[in-house]
């Protein structure tokens, strides 16, 4: 079994992108997601350089939606 799986991003600055994440981070979390600094941080507010993406509650845990910029 592969320890990494690929999630897809919807909306925001990395719309359409994918990222490999640990399988247990998705399968063991009822609301998977996390915040990170995108490669291209252009457009980020000065006080919030990170993006937040999470799966929809009850939705596909492999598709994470844009939630906004975070500090």
Can you give a write-up of this model?
The chain has a domain at 41-71. It has a 5-stranded mixed sheet with strand order 2-1-5-4-3. By secondary structure, the protein is mostly beta strands. The N and C termini lie far apart (35 Å). The model has no long low-confidence stretch (mean pLDDT 89). The radius of gyration is 12 Å and the shape is globular. The chain has 1 helix and 5 strands; from the N terminus they run ββαβββ.
Helix content: under 10%
Let me know the average pLDDT: 89
Biggest β-sheet strands, sense, barrel: 5 strands, mixed
Shape: globular
The largest sheet has its strands arranged as 2-1-5-4-3
Please report the total strand number as a whole number.
5
Q: Radius of gyration, rounded?
A: 12 Å
């Amino acid at each position: 079994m592969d320890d990494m799986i690929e999630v897809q991003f919807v909306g925001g600055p990395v719309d359409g992108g994918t990222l490999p994440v640990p399988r247990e981070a998705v399968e063991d979390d009822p609301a998977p997601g996390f915040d990170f600094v995108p490669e291209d941080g252009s457009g980020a507010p000065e006080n919030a350089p990170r993006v937040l993406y999470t799966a929809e509650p009850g939705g596909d845990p492999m598709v994470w939606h844009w939630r906004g910029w975070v500090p």
